[in-house]
Structure formats: structure tokens, C-alpha cells
Amino acid sequence: MSLIRTFEDRLHVEFQTGDIPGFIHLYAGQEACAVGCTAHFKKQGRLRSSNRR
Questions:
Q1: Long-range contacts for 9-14 (Cβ within 8 Å, ≥24 apart)?
Q2: Closest CA to 49 of 36, 39, 35, 34
Q3: What would the pLDDT profile of 29-50 be if each residue is shown by its tens digit?
Q4: Calpha distance 33→4 (Å, rounded)
Q5: 39: which residues sit within 8 A by CB, 6+ positions away?
Q6: Is 2 helix (H, G, I), strand (E, B) or coil?
Q7: How far apart are CA 3 and CA 5, in angstroms?
Q8: Mutual orientation of helices 31-38 and 2-16 as an angle, nearest 10°?
Q9: Helices marked H in 1-53 — which ranges?
Q10: Backbone phi, then psi, for 43, in 5-degree steps?
Q11: How far is the C-alpha of 13 from the C-alpha of 6, rounded, in Å?
Q12: Is the pTM of this model over 0.85?
């Protein structure tokens, strides 16, 4: 969870400085959801995500 948060924090900073164009949707505060869901994956397991607009 700390690795996800570290990545999110850096992503937020780089987006604010304009280094990353477009739009981002931060996951800060939701790290436990990702860790809990993927903890049960097998090595060959896959995850697909999408974003509704």
C-alpha cells in the first residue's frame, strides 16, 4: 500500500507541474481496495480496469 501511495503522491506533483498532460484520477485513500483484491490473484491472474465517462 505504501508503494501505491508513493507513486500516487509523485504522480500528483508531476501532474500539477505540467509534466504529465491530460487528466488523471488519483487513487489516494483507496490503496487497501487494490491490495485486498489483488492479494488473491494467482501468478498468471489478470486485472482489467476501465473508466466510465
A1: none
A2: 34
A3: 888 988 988 888 888 888 777 7
A4: 11
A5: none
A6: helix
A7: 5
A8: 130
A9: 2-16, 31-38
A10: -55, -40
A11: 11
A12: no
